[in-house]
């Protein structure tokens, strides 16, 4: 308890906790739809786009968030468009965008002096990176995502599992796909400051996959993913603070441990039901 009290005495840790919890919640909820639609690696692709945009912004002396958010949202639109029209498969499109953006970021970094520290924190994350503006933006974003799941649950369910059926019932499928992509893009840009470009996609993938080990209904997976993401993030930050390890990597390891525990629970439940 004394360590937790000590943690909460630092304003930057409080900012990281509040912002991180909100970002984790957004990633987990959006991740359920993305994983079920087999579009989970969009997080990895957009995080690399964000890294390239941030590198350009830092090198030019511009505001990183003001540059990266529009560019990442545009990349999300581009990925949706080329995959919807069947010109390029989604995994190939994400790989192409991801590699190109990462290459741009690395080239800009190598040509700019004094950028190593900034870029390192964006690549691997830093608990110091969460500003007050990030926390406010995270709060607004989490309210929008929660409202989307509360008030549009049935439509999201239909769009996630069967787009043809959703279209037949009058649901604007393109609108919901764009909405999920845009919210994911903004969440990734904010969360990348703390988790890092290399690890932010884990917040989208792990909670949903872990919840699916035990829960089989969409509602159960959504609720469990949200709770699991927040709990794993808290334990990850405490572990990071106590052991002086990078925050992003610590959160991912806790998520991995949760996945293993849920997988064991799943195998036990399967054996019990067979008997």
Architecture overview:
- The chain has 13 helices and no strands.
- It is mainly α.
- The chain has a domain at 16-201: Orthogonal Bundle (ABC transporter involved in vitamin B12 uptake, BtuC).
- The model has no long low-confidence stretch (mean pLDDT 83).
Annotation keywords:
275 residues; mainly alpha; ABC transporter involved in vitamin B12 uptake, BtuC; 13 helices; 83% helix
Overall structural class, as computed from helix and strand content, comes to: mainly alpha
CATH superfamily of the domain at 16-201: ABC transporter involved in vitamin B12 uptake, BtuC
Number of helices: 13
CATH architecture of the domain at 16-201: Orthogonal Bundle
Mean pLDDT: 83
The amount of helix comes to over 70%
- First and last CA, distance: 43 Å
Query: What does the main sheet amount to?
Result: none
- According to CATH, the fold-level topology of the domain at 16-201 is ABC transporter involved in vitamin B12 uptake, BtuC
Query: Secondary-structure element order, as H and E?
Result: HHHHHHHHHHHHH
Alpha carbon gyration radius: 19 Å
Q: What proportion strand?
A: under 5%
Q: Which segments are poorly predicted (pLDDT under 50) over 5 or more consecutive residues?
A: none
Identify the overall geometry.
globular
């Amino acid at each position: 308890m004394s360590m937790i009290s000590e943690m909460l005495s630092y304003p930057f840790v409080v900012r990281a906790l509040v912002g991180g919890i909100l970002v984790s919640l957004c990633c987990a909820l959006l991740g359920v739809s993305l994983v079920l639609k087999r579009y989970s690696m969009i997080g990895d692709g957009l995080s690399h786009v964000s890294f390239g945009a941030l590198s350009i912004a830092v090198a030019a002396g511009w505001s990183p968030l003001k540059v990266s958010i529009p560019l990442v949202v545009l990349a999300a639109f581009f990925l949706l468009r080329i995959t919807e029209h069947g010109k390029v498969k989604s995994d190939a499109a994400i790989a192409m965008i991801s590699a190109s953006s990462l290459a741009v970021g690395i080239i800009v970094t190598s040509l700019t002096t004094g950028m190593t520290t900034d870029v390192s924190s964006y690549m691997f994350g830093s608990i110091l990176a969460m500003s007050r503006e990030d926390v406010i933006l995270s709060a607004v974003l989490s309210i929008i995502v929660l409202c989307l799941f509360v008030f549009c649950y049935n439509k999201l369910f239909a769009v996630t599992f069967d787009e043809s059926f959703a279209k037949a019932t009058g649901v604007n499928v393109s609108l919901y796909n764009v909405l999920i992509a845009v919210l994911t893009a903004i969440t990734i840009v904010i969360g990348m400051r703390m988790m890092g470009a290399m690890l932010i996609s884990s917040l989208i993938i792990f909670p949903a996959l872990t919840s699916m080990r035990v829960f089989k209904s969409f509602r159960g997976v959504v609720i469990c993913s949200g709770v699991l993401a927040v709990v794993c993030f808290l334990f990850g930050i405490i572990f990071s603070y106590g052991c002086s390890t990078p925050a992003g990597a610590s959160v991912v390891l806790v998520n991995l441990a949760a996945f293993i525990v849920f997988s064991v629970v799943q195998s036990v439940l399967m054996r019990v039901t067979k008997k």
